[in-house]
Amino acid sequence: MIRTAMSAVEELAACLGSAVISGADASLAYRRDRSLLTAAGTPAAVVRARSAEHVVATLRIADQRGVPVVTRGAGSGLAGGANAIDGCIVLCTERMNRILSIDEHTRTATVEAGVINSDVATAAAAHGLWYVPDPGSRDFSTIGGNIATNAGGACCAKYGVTADHVARIKAVLPGGQIIHTGSATRKNTAGLNLTQLLVGSEGTLAVIVEATVRLRQLPSETATLVATFPSATAATSAVASLTAATEPSLVEFMDNTTIAAVNRMTKMGLDEAAGGMLLIQCDGDSAHTQIERCAAACGELQPIELYVTADAREGAALMQARRVALTALEKCGSTLLDDLAVPVPQLASMLTAISEIATRHELLIGTFGHAADGNLHPTIVFDAADPDAVFRARRAFSDMVARCLELGGSITGEHGVGQLKSSFLTQMVGVAERRLMGDIKSVFDPRGILNPGRGV
Amino acid sequence: MIRTAMSAVEELAACLGSAVISGADASLAYRRDRSLLTAAGTPAAVVRARSAEHVVATLRIADQRGVPVVTRGAGSGLAGGANAIDGCIVLCTERMNRILSIDEHTRTATVEAGVINSDVATAAAAHGLWYVPDPGSRDFSTIGGNIATNAGGACCAKYGVTADHVARIKAVLPGGQIIHTGSATRKNTAGLNLTQLLVGSEGTLAVIVEATVRLRQLPSETATLVATFPSATAATSAVASLTAATEPSLVEFMDNTTIAAVNRMTKMGLDEAAGGMLLIQCDGDSAHTQIERCAAACGELQPIELYVTADAREGAALMQARRVALTALEKCGSTLLDDLAVPVPQLASMLTAISEIATRHELLIGTFGHAADGNLHPTIVFDAADPDAVFRARRAFSDMVARCLELGGSITGEHGVGQLKSSFLTQMVGVAERRLMGDIKSVFDPRGILNPGRGV
Questions:
Q1: Is the pLDDT of residue A216 over 90?
Q2: Measured between beta carbons, which residues in chain A are less than 8 angstroms from residue B160?
Q3: Domain span including residue A71
Q4: pLDDT confidence tier of residue B24, bands split at 50, 70 and 90
Q5: Which of A170, A401, B142, B326 is a good FRET partner for A251, with 20 to 30 A between their CA atoms?
C-alpha cells in the first residue's frame, strides 16, 4: 500500500509540480476538518489543485493505482468527512477560487469549487443580487464543500438549503472524465437528476470543480424580533405558531446554557435567566407587518420579553448573538457539536431528551439551532483530556441521535454523515435504501477510491 | 414473449383477481397517454392496483418473468412515457387514491400515488393550507404522475416545481422490495438523495406508491396584472424587468395565435391584435405593492394596455384565458405540444426561431407558457389526416428542440422525456452523463423491466 501510494505521489509530482506537497507539512495542515473525536490518517500527498485539469490528472492517477482520494474545500466540515485516510491523496480545491461570472440576466453565478461562500455573496451584492445559503461557516467555507455536504444555515427557513440554489455542477469522475449536470434553465426534467445526487454526496461520487448557483434580488426590508421565554420548550412551542402566522426568513433558537455562554463572552446584556430565546427575522416588502404578526404569536405564549426592530443594522447586531454561539460554548471546554433535525412539533420533546441525557451523563450541553427547520445543534461541552468525560460525551452523542430517530428525525440536517454519523446511516435510511446508495456510488466510483467508508 | 406474458397474466389474475383486466377493453382505455404522434403497443394486461401490496405482487411477477411494466397514473402525460409497450403490463395507480393524512403541524400531506393533484389541494385548503404545484392537468393528473414527471405549472415562478414540494416517497422496486426515501424533516442530508432521483424518473427506477408532500399557508392576498404588447418579443422582454423588480407568483405568456384561438372560443374580449400578452400574479401581504411594481416595469416597454386588479376572483377569471390555451388551440386542428425551457434572456430568440420554423414548414404554431421560468409550449396545429402535414409537424418539432439546445435550453421543462424527447436526451445531457443515468437505472432495475427505452 505505501509503495503504491509513493509511486502515485511521484507520478503526481511529475505531472502537477508544485501543486503537490507531501510530508509532515501536508499532514499537519490538511489532515483534519473542524470536527472533534474523529479519526484522521496520514495522507501520502496533498494536491492543491489550481484547475479542473489538476483534478482530472489527480483522479486519473489515483484511479489507476487504487489510491483513496479525500476531497476538501476549506476543511470546515464538522463530521470528519474531509479527514485524511492513511496513504490517501488529499485533493484540496481551495486554490480553485475564481468567480467565473455573475449573470444579472439569469441571476446566476458560476464559480470554481474553492470560492468562499461569502465571496460569492459579496460579488453578487455588487450587482444588487443575493446568494442566500448562509451556513455558520460562510466566511471561510467553500461553495464546493457547501454543495458536497448540502450545507444549510439560518435562511433555509424561507429559502431552502444549498441544494435549492444549485443549477449546474461540473465534476470529475474517478478516471478523469468530466461531467456536467443540470441546466441553465429554472425548469428542467430531462433524465435523472444527477445534480441533486451530487449535492450532499460528501465527495463519494465525483469531485465538484465548478458550480452555477442561483441568485435572488436582495430583500427590500428586514425586520427583527427577539423573544425570550421562561423555558426552552416554551420558546420552541412558539415556532409552530410563528410559521403558521407568516413566513419568517429565519427563526433561530438558543437555550439557557448558550445564552449564558454568549453573554459572558459578548457582554451583550442578554437575559441569562431566560430558559430560551428566539431570534426571528422577516424580509421583503411586508417585513414589518410580518414581524408584528410574529410578535403577536409569541405574545400569546407568556414571553419574558419581546423586542422588535425594523432597523436592518440593529437586526444584524442582534443576530450576532446567535452567530457566535458555538465560539462562546468553545470557551467553556472542548465541544462535540451535533446536528439533528426533528419535525417542528417534536422540538420540545427533543429538548427535553437532551436535558435528560445531559443529566444522565453528567455533562453540560448547550443547544442552539435553526428552529423553523427543527434543526438543532446540541453541543456537548467536556474536558477532552479526561478519558471518562470523552467516553460520556460519546455516549451522550449516541443517545441524542437515537432519540432523534425515535422522534422521526434525521441524523444530520446540514453537516453531513462523514464519520460521526456513518454508524447510524442504515438505521436512518433503511437496509435496502442504503444498498441502493452503495450501488449508486459504485456506478460513479467502481474502484471505490472516493472518500471510502464515508457519507454513503 | 407472448407465452411468457400470457402466463404472467394468469399468475397476476390468480394473485390479484379483479384488479387485473386484459383484452380489448384494457388495450383501449389504458394504452395511451395524452400525447399525439407517439407509438402505443398492446398490453398483455392492465393491473388497476388498489394498494401497495398489489404493486408489490405485480412487480414480483413481472420481474421474475422479465415482462415490461409501464406505470401510469391518470394517463395525462404529454410525452408518450405512459403508452403501453407490446406485451407489457400496464400498472395503473388511479385506484390508489386515498389521502392518508393532512398534518397541520408539520404542514404536510401524505397521499397514495393515484390521488388527483387538485384533490390534495382541496383537502389542504380545508385546513387553511396550500398544495402549490399547479400543472395545467391539475384537475385530472395524479400526484404519482406529477412526481414521476416532475410536473411544473404556473406557480413555479415563485414556488418551484413538484420536486421542491416532495418530502418523502414510498416506492416499490422491481422484485417487490418496498423502499422509503427522504425525511419528515425540512432539512436532511443523510446519504444520497434518492427522493430527487425518483422525482422525474418517469417510471424507470421504481413505482411510486405513496408520497409526503409539503404544504404552505394559503397566501393572504393575490393581485393580477394583464399586459398586452404589440409583439411577442416585447412581451417576453418585459419578463426580465418584472422579475428583477419583484417576485411574481406567476408570469404567463400567450402569443397572438393563442390569444386569437382563446378569444374565439371564450369570447372574453381579448385584444386579437396584440402580438403578445402577459398574465402576472403577485401574492402575499404585499401583493398589491408588488403588482404595481410589475405594472411600472411593463409600462416602460410600450404596452398596448395594462389592467390591474386586486380582486382574487377577477384574477382567477383572467387566468382562465391562459388555462384554456391548449383546449382552444385543439379546436383549430390536431396539436403537437412541445415543452421547451430556455434561459429567460433567450425567450425572444426562441420565439423568433419558432416563428421562422412555422413559416419554413408552412404550419400554424401557437405558443404559450410559463415565461418567468423560460418554459414555452409551442403548439403545432396541423391536420393529422394529412401525411405531409404530419411529416412537416415532426420536422418543425425537431427544429424547435434543436434551436432550444443551441440557446442553452432544456429539451423538457415539465413534461418529461417520454418517447417524444428520447432521441434528444444524449445531446442534452452528454454521453458520459447519459451512461451514468443508464447505469443508475440498472441499479434499481437490473432486468430492465420498468418503462424500457424511456426517460433515462
A1: yes
A2: 164
A3: 2-92
A4: confident
A5: A401
Shared-domain flag, residues B211 and B246 = no
**B447 lies in some domain:** no
Residues A268 and A400 in one domain: yes
* ipTM of the complex as predicted: 0.97
Q: Is B240 on the interface with A (CB under 8 A)?
A: yes
Q: Is the pLDDT of residue A140 over 90?
A: yes
**pLDDT tens digit string along A159-202?**
999 999 999 999 999 999 999 999 999 999 999 999 999 999 99
Looking at the fold, whether B42 and B131 belong to one and the same domain comes out as no
Same domain assignment for residues B210 and B248: no
Kindly state whether A291 is in contact with chain B, defined as any CB-CB distance less than 8 angstroms. Answer: no
CB contact under 8 A, A194 and B437: yes
**Shared domain check, B369 and B397:** yes
Secondary structure of chain A in HEC code, one letter for each residue: CHHHHHHHHHHHHHHHHHHEECCHHHHHHHCCCCCCCCCCCCCCEEEECCCHHHHHHHHHHHHHHCCCEEEECCCCCCCCCCCCCCCCEEEECCCCCCEEEEECCCCEEEEECCCEHHHHHHHHHCCCEECCCCCCCCCCCEHHHHHHHCCCCCCHHHHCCHHHHEEEEEEECCCCCEEEEECCCCCCCCCCCHHHHHCCCCCCCCEEEEEEEECEECCCCEEEEEEEECCHHHHHHHHHHHHHHCCCCEEEEEEHHHHHHHHHHHCCCCCCCCCEEEEEEEECCCHHHHHHHHHHHHHCCCCCEEEEECCHHHHHHHHHHHHCHHHHHHCCCEEEECCEECCHHHHHHHHHHHHHHHHHCCCEEEEEEEHHHCEEEEEEEECCCCHHHHHHHHHHHHHHHHHHHHCCCECCCCCCCCCCCHHHHHHHHCHHHHHHHHHHHHHHCCCCCECCCCCC
Helix-helix angle B256-266:B312-323, to 10 degrees: 110
What total of structural domains would you count in chain A? 3
Q: Supply B371's cell numbers.
A: 415565461
Of B166, B198, B217, which residue constitutes the final position of a domain? B217
What DSSP state is assigned to residue B218?
P
Residue of chain A whose alpha carbon sits nearest to that of B182:
A429
The answer to whether the CB atoms of A436 and B179 lie below 8 A apart is yes
- Helix A256-266 and helix A312-323, axial crossing angle in degrees, nearest 10: 110
- φ, ψ at B56 (rounded to 5°): -60, -50
Contact B417 A373 (CB under 8 A): no
Claim to verify: residue B87 and residue B169 sit in the same structural domain:
no
Same domain, A127 and A181: yes
Predicted TM-score of the model (pTM): 0.97
Q: Which three cell numbers stand for residue A157?
A: 427557513
CB of A411 within 8 Å of a chain B CB? The answer is yes
State whether residue B421 sits within 8 Å of chain A by CB: yes
Q: Is the pLDDT of residue B11 over 80?
A: yes
Q: How far apart are CA B345 and CA B361, in angstroms?
A: 26
Is the Cβ pair A185, B343 closer than 8 Å?
yes
Short-list B374, B380, B338, CA closest to B358: B380
Distances (CA, A) of B377 to B233, B335, B354, B368, B371: 15, 11, 11, 5, 10
Angle at B74 between CA B71 and CA B76, to 5 degrees: 100
B24 and B104 belong to one structural domain: no
Give pLDDT tens digits for B289-345. 999 999 999 999 999 999 999 999 999 999 999 999 999 999 999 999 999 999 999
